[in-house]
Amino acid sequence: MANNRTSLFGGGASTSGGSGGGVAGGGSGSYNQYDEERENDRAIDQIANRAAALKRITIDIQEEAEQQQSLLDGMGQYMDKSRGLVGNVSRYFDKVLKENRHRRYAYYVLGLVVLFLILYRW
Predict the structure, then answer these.
(1) How many CB atoms lie within 10 A of CB 30?
(2) Long-range CB contact pairs, 1-5, < 8 A, 24+
(3) Is the pLDDT of residue 24 over 80?
(4) Could you tell me the pLDDT band of residue 107, with boundaries at 50, 70 and 90?
(5) pTM of the full structure
């Protein structure tokens, strides 16, 4: 029964107090505990390494998200500026097309643009 106990519990109080055979049983039990502790330490180190890697990855993701957010903000500002410019040009063309003498110039310009596009395609 003592052998079953040592195999289950790695050497208890009853086997470590004896001389000869008890020391050998206690020594093997402590050796198993030492191996288990080393394995646990290795597992803890692996978990710590994985946690550090995940931390680096999340920091990289956060930095990338911040960069993309700043790019999108910049694009939004440029879009607002271009919308204003297009609105100004549109108002100018409305003003030009309402007057008969300027309408002829607008048609000339439009014809030149179309001609240029046709020549460019060929």
Answers:
(1) 13
(2) none
(3) no
(4) confident
(5) 0.44
